[in-house]
Design a protein that fits this description.
Helix content: 25-40%
Bound molecules: 6-phosphogluconic acid
Distance between the termini: 25 Å
Largest sheet: 8 strands, parallel
Shape: globular
Radius of gyration: 17 Å
Number of strands: 13
Structural class: alpha/beta
Strand content: 15-25%
Strand order of the largest sheet: 5-3-2-8-11-12-1-13
Number of helices: 7
Order of helices and strands: EHEHHEEHEHEEEEEHEHEE
């Protein structure tokens, strides 16, 4: 497995600013080359500051929003106004303040009672909107990922059947232990992307990050290890606290 590329920032604010630059530069490059930019955004707490920054004029004024199509990496099976809904967070942090056209955000239907049907519908939307392919799979230009303390990413949880899904692009998932049922992009779609970036912040993630990046391959227990782009680039944007237990990996700071 190729050595992962890691960028260490002093704190979450600087990590988010670095990620915002990556987002802007990737968007500008793809729009210049193809006229469009397709990205998938994770939920959770870590990426919120990135999304807030992208909506500020320092970044937003550099993005041709009409040429940008945003999708979700995963969603909790709750209505869009529920506090745990990822779309709600992304809408508050980015969509409303950036005044992005609503039709350019492709929301997962978390409130759909039948999660399998919601997953099927979302796969059709991926197929309809995204022209680029890796094999027969839609190819995102950029995917923003987080990592849970248990090593999950997207809604790909340790031991989950979703980890084994190879034919489908979107599937139901569950964290187990009474957690909310979810819908998630599968490894197939995630690993077809041109560029993936993990955002990991905080000392509570340090042990897991060291296991994921420096421990033995065990993606069934640490699903973040299963992110290996087929024909793309993977970079980890971490802060000093999260990186505090990393040993041998060369780190580019800044
Ligand atoms: C979600 C996310 C999930 C998240 C990790 C990290 O729906 O919760 O997609 O994969 O990225 O759980 O979450 P934090 O950023 O809140 O630590």
């Amino acid at each position: 497995m190729p050595k992962p590329k890691i960028r260490v920032s002093p704190n979450l604010e600087e990590l988010s600013r670095a990620a915002a630059e990556l987002f802007v530069e990737t968007a500008r490059s793809r729009i210049a080359a193809t006229g469009s930019f397709f990205a998938a955004l994770s939920g959770g707490a870590t990426p919120r500051r990135l999304y807030e920054l992208l909506a500020t004029s320092a970044y937003s004024d550099r993005i041709a929003w009409p040429n940008v199509h945003l999708f979700q990496v995963d969603e909790r099976c709750v209505p869009p106004d529920h506090p745990d809904n990822n779309f709600r967070m992304i809408r508050e942090a980015l969509l409303v303040p950036s005044r992005m056209a609503p039709e350019n955000f492709h929301r997962m239907d978390g409130e759909q009672a039948d999660a399998s049907e919601a997953a099927r519908q979302y796969a059709l939307e991926l197929d309809r909107v995204i022209p680029n392919r890796e094999g027969n799979c839609p190819r995102f230009d950029l995917v923003v990922l987080g990592m849970g303390n248990d090593g999950h990413t997207a809604s790909l949880f340790p031991g989950s059947p979703a980890l084994e899904e190879r034919d489908g692009w979107v599937c139901p998932s569950s964290p187990g232990a009474g957690g909310l049922p979810r819908i998630t992009l599968t490894y197939t779609v995630l690993n077809a992307a041109a560029q993936l970036v993990f955002l990991v912040s905080g000392s509570e993630k340090a042990a897991t990050l060291a296991n994921v990046l420096e421990g033995p391959p065990q993606s069934h227990l640490l699903p973040a290890q299963g992110i290996c782009p087929v024909n793309g680039h993977l970079v980890w944007y971490v802060d000093e606290a999260a990186a505090s237990q990393l040993q041998g990996i060369s780190r580019s700071s800044g």
